[in-house]
Amino acid sequence: MDTKVYEAFYSLLDTGHVLLDRFCDERGISIQVCKKAGTRVLGQYDSVQNALFRWFGAERVKRAGLANQAGHLIFYAHRIIFPWKNESGTPTYFTARAVKGVNDGPKELCLIGTTPVLPYNAPTVTTGQDIHICEGNIDALTLEDMALRAVATGGTEGLRRSWIGWLKSKRVSSVIPAYDADSTGQAKSREVEELARKVGLKVGRLFLPTGHDVNSYFGKGPTKKAMFHVARPGPQHIMAPYPPWHGAA
Fold first, then answer.
1. More confident residue, 146 or 83
2. Residue 84: which H helix or E strand, with range?
3. Residue 9 near residue 49, CB atoms below 8 Å
4. pTM of the full predicted structure?
């Protein structure tokens, strides 16, 4: 992890860009929430690459995980950049989303050879909150857009057990797994519940209709978002009859 390189890279990204506007519109997430989480766009690829190589040298940028062995920034086709920050707000990791119509490969990309220190959106976690744990950044942003505090682990295999201890140290009110409604996601939800209980945290569950993730269900559904808030009594109670609901795990 090379925070000097990461901070420089982050400073060169665009805070306002048509690609970010388009992304937020497609995902049904407010631009304000995306910007508050620090989402930016790699708008000037060549300029950013040249600046980083000039300031730090190509080898150091490679070691930081931002460039491949051929000496190119890895985010050529993945221009929507999500910073993973430590508690003081310093970027310590990045993931990125592909621009529609530009990339035929993976939708998401992360740094090479390094892992995040804390979950995505960690700086927003404070004492007394109900914390939703999601698979991906987009799901976490969707819940944030619903005024629900959320972090993301970067896929079902991204969770570090130490992060549950970190949430305990932050004295959060409860942990609420919000993984995808498929077999892999629900297995991870049960694992998170078990880990949380072991350290004495209260546990809930966000239940989604089968086959959905948070964004696919809520992203383009303002009515769903509104009804969810009306019907939701709290993380330890069953919300019925309107799915999805928060329930006791």
1. 83
2. strand 80-85
3. no
4. 0.88
Please give the C-alpha separations between residue 32 and each of 21, 79, 153, 228, in angstroms, as whole numbers: 10, 18, 22, 21
Output b/e per residue, 113-147; b: 16+ Cβ within 10 A: ebebbbbbbbbebeeebbbbbbbbbbbbbbbbbbe
Per-residue model confidence as pLDDT tens digits over 171-228: 999 999 999 989 999 999 999 999 999 999 999 888 888 888 999 988 876 556 555 5
Mean pLDDT rounded to a whole number for the chain: 87
Segment 89-94 long-range contacts (CB within 8 Å, at least 24 positions apart) = 89/123, 90/3, 90/6, 90/7, 91/3, 91/6, 91/7, 91/9, 91/10, 91/38, 92/1, 92/3, 92/6, 92/116, 92/117, 92/118, 93/1, 93/6, 93/117, 94/6, 94/9, 94/10, 94/66
What are the backbone angles phi and psi of residue 35, rounded to the nearest 5°? -70, -35
Write the DSSP string, 145-201: TTT--EEE-SSTT---HHHHHHHHHTT-SEEEE---SSHHHHHHHHHHHHHHHHTT-
Burial (CB count <10 Å: 0-12, 13-18, 19+), residue 213: buried
Q: How confident is the model at residue 101 (pLDDT cuts 50, 70, 90)?
A: low
In the β-sheet with 174-177, what is the strand arrangement from edge to edge?
A: 150-152, 130-134, 174-177, 202-207, 245-248
Distance CA 112, CA 74 (A): 9
- Nearest to residue 163, comparing CAs of 173, 171, 153? 153
Query: Does the bond joining 83 to the residue before it have cis omega, within 30 degrees of 0?
Result: no
Strands 91-97 and 108-110: antiparallel
